[in-house]
Amino acid sequence: MLIRPNAKINLGLNIVSRRPDGYHNLQTVFYPINLRDELEIDARPDTTDITFTTTGGIALDCEDEDNLIVKTCRLFQRLYNTGGFDIRFKKNIPFGAGLGGGSSDAAHTAMAINELYHLNLSKEELKNAVSHLGADCAFFIENRACYAEGIGNILTSVDISLKGYTLLLVKPDIHVSTKEAYRGITARMPETGIKDIIRLPVEEWRDRLCNDFEHTIKNRLYGMGASYASMSGSGASVFGLFKREIHEDELSCLSDCFVHTESF
Question: Which residues are identified as catalytic?
Answer without folding.
Answer: 8, 136
